[in-house]
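User: I'm putting together a teaching handout on how sequence relates to shape, and I'd like one worked example. Could you take DNA-directed DNA polymerase from Zea mays, show the sequence you're using, and then write out its predicted structure as tokens right after it?

Assistant: Happy to. First the sequence, then the structure tokens directly below it.
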Amino acid sequence: MIHTGLDDISRAKAIAGKVIQEVNKKYRCLEIDLDGIYKRMLLLKKKKYAAIKVALDGSLRENIERKGLDMVRRDWSLLSKDIGDFCLKQILSGGTCDDVVESIHSSLVQVQEQMRSGQIELEKYVITKSLTKAPEDYPDAKNQPHVQVALRLKQNGYSGCSAGDTVPYIICSQQDSDNAHSVGIAQRARHPEELKRDPDKWMIDIDYYLSQQIHPVVSRLCASIQGTSPARLAECLGLDSAKFQPRLTESSNQDTSMMLLSVIDDEDERYRGCEPLRLSCPSCSGTFDCPPVSSLITSASATSVSDPIEGKDATANFWRHMRCPRCLDNTVESKFSPSMLANQMKRQADNFISLYYKGLQMCDDEGCKYSTHSVNLRVMGDSERGTVCPNYPRCNGRLVRQYKESDLYRQLSYFCYVLDATRCLEKLDQKARLPFEREFVAVGQTIKLALLEIQKIRDRCAFGWVQLKDLAVSI
């Protein structure tokens, strides 16, 4: 696709002709041609877009073309498709961002009011899905709504439930039931005729359609639109907005932030968000957050060494006495030995390593929230192995690791920073360094064992090493 930035169709065609001519001249085995001219485009992800396509015959006919969007699949209700079409038309209308967002918000509020008051016809809630095999051959039939409906229809003598047939169903909840949502979705799926025959027992599960059919479609279309968010859209639909808050860890944002943090000299900024080093007092068994050794300098600038530091700043005095700052007992039992400090440091590092190897993955789709420790080996298109959500095709999201190798390496590096007295001194100029050198030498002897241990653990992490053989190209 080429963005010409032009409003003149003839000039856009001229640019396309030049590109076609040059490419076909250079690549004899490949011939390209003009596929279409688009007036506006909403590009969500790779191979997922919606655009206003202009006719190539010279007329001014326009139509919306959709590629890879969820609402073109069968397993969405007609209601969700209609709302998705409305949102697309608003986004591609050319109106201002504020007007588009306001129109979408007001439409969602109106739709959820109509749904709860029963003004939407039954056919709008119907979901259709095809059987890929006989209903009896499904190993996970209890988790497939259309399979449950097909099995029930077969028991009643209906013959049109074989491989290749399409099964319509509606997700319902029982009337006058306190635990209406405690039963799985598959068990609550009913054929439209079943719902018509027994309306006093079953009713349409409005919350399911709002949260699982409408909200995912709208939130994906509006993901790049300023002025709205998944939580705001959920609020318009009458849902709990807290359940749709954006995730704290996003794969692309996290990778970008790690690249930026790697070049930041300020340790406080680089290690922001890392878990503190928590030490357990050998005397009172209480825990406290161990400050970096650099706190010796910051505390000295605020008060003299002989003055006691109380309250919140008492932890800065830990490195001078190697005792728990919250413990009133100043006996030998309350003092940290080098081996004790090293053991507690190693135990916490092992906990973070175990967290990494648990391999928890979560779907990046706000409406899915599927999490697993297993690796999904399914490959769809050009997706990376292990990233396809197991809920596909109901969900087009991808699995994102919640605790990545970059997180582990940064946490281990933070522990090294907490204990690295030498680096702290090197950052001071010669004149400012002298008053602290003697004190840092004494501290360094105490924490040397723990520092060597955590540095050894961090250096085993492959994330911090560049393999030169991977950079070499064999000829």
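A couple of points you could highlight for students: The radius of gyration is 31 Å. The domain at 252-359+403-464 is CATH 1.10.3200.20 (Hypothetical protein af0941).
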